[in-house]
Design a protein that fits this description.
Helices cover 17% and strands 27% of the residues. The protein is α+β, with helices and mostly antiparallel strands. The chain has a five-stranded mixed beta sheet with strand order 1-4-5-3-2. The longest helix is centred in the C-terminal third of the chain and has 9 residues, at 139-147.
């Protein structure tokens, strides 16, 4: 996770391992066969091969994709764990409400809704530089996905 979220190393360890994952029990194979995004529980987006083929050239300066074998009842489906390489100051710390969280290192976490900085440079997908567990996509990203009929469900800022 350090490589994918915190940008702590160069990712060279990935040449020695094969990434594998198991979906949550409620996700059936027919869903895996058609969806283009899987929400992981460790803040690493996982996209389908179809997504990577369509969006890879567009996102080439913002992400790196690594194949991950999703194993579901002896069926293997290839997705791609996504290393977001664009880090930006996205969250307005002053305007966003905070709540205490004793499990977090600094004792604070953001509560919904998140308020964004003004005058953010254009991006498609990025992690917040101060809160790297938080990653966001732009309206342009959403439009491109919708135009290409990618099966990605978008939610409001949390």
């Amino acid at each position: 996770m350090e490589y994918f979220v915190f940008n702590d190393n160069d990712g060279s360890f990935l040449q020695y391992i094969a990434l594998t994952g198991v979906p949550q029990r409620k996700i059936k194979q027919d869903v895996l066969d058609v969806c283009d995004y899987l929400k992981g529980n460790i803040c690493i987006p996982m996209f389908s091969e179809r997504f990577v083929n369509l969006m890879g050239p567009i996102l080439k300066d913002e992400v790196l994709f690594y194949p991950i074998d999703i194993i579901n009842d002896n069926t293997h489906t290839t997705f791609f764990a996504t290393k977001i390489i664009k880090y930006m100051e996205l969250i307005d710390d002053e305007q966003t409400a905070k709540a205490e969280d004793k499990d977090r290192e600094n004792g604070i976490m953001f509560s919904s809704p998140i308020v964004f900085q003004e005058n953010i440079a254009p991006f498609l997908i990025a992690r917040d530089i101060n809160e790297p567990f938080r990653w966001f996509v732009s309206d342009d990203f959403k439009s491109i996905c919708n135009k290409n009929r990618l099966r990605v469900k978008f939610i409001d800022n949390l």
